[in-house]
Amino acid sequence: MLATILHAPGDVRYEEVPEPTIRKPTDAIIRLSATCICGSDLWPYRGLQPLSGPAAMGHEYCGVVVEVGSAVTSVKPGQFVVGSFATSDNTCPHCRFGFPSSCIEREFMTGAQAPYARVPLADGTLVATDEMPADDLIPSLLATSDVLGTGWYAAEAAAVKEGGTAVVVGDGAVGLMGVLAAKEMGAVRIIAMSRHKARQELALEYGATDIIAERGEDGIRRIRELTDGIGADSVLECVGTQESMEQAISVCRPGGHIGYVGVPHGVTFDGQRLFFAQSSLLGGPAPVRRFLPHLMDLVLSRKINPGKVFDLELPIADVAEGYKAMDERRAIKTLLRV
Ligand SMILES: [Zn+2]
Hints:
By secondary structure, the chain is α/β, with parallel strands linked by helices.
């Protein structure tokens, strides 16, 4: 089959690879219904994350099971499934404590920007729907696999509460999903930081009450003004740079919570600064598997429409253009039709 391989920074190809096969009795093979490009795929694409040889790209997926290993009991061929980018057995102490993205058996999914993919730990990782979902729900179901689950985690880690205030740092796909999550969790004031018109509009549609285009000191001052000089109860950091982290810490009120889900690149913390900021910090790879049943229900009952975050749709053969469009910020997120 043909699949997406990143050979070097800026060099992504759709090329011939062996079809995935069952390697362990706990594996499943799925036929992708659609797949997509993640903001985190841009780190190696931009050469900001080392690449040790050609890499099979893609970790967001939904589709139909075509084959399962001999030990798999909870899903069967023909079922529509969604899974997390981090696979999990759903039984180990970390899974049972609510953090399946740190599962003792965890593997990170790869190779899902392809027509077929192998999913390890299928029993713990995959969640099946009762019936085949309508076609128009596929983008939103795909979004639950990572981008929505990660935005959701940012809001949960930032302890967004009914009636609270939330600031979302970052207007990428995850930040926009963070806005949606904060709204669902009942925040009454959601301040989205964004300088791009299309992203501002989507943020407003997903529930943002205020948009701040300023960054750095100006951005911090604007948020302080909007919160009567107090700062926000909850801050969702959805970028992963020093600047975005500084922004997040500076606008969180004492006793407030920061959920940080942008994978930090070159971020350092000053101990005394953190001490006096007096904020809770929780980050890491989102425990998406824990949220999946709830998020899939919200999508299947059409209560939320996270799929709108895909503003570019391409046939998977044009995957290279999909990367380019996201790299140049012409697209928020690219959906690939398989
Ligand atoms: Zn586990």
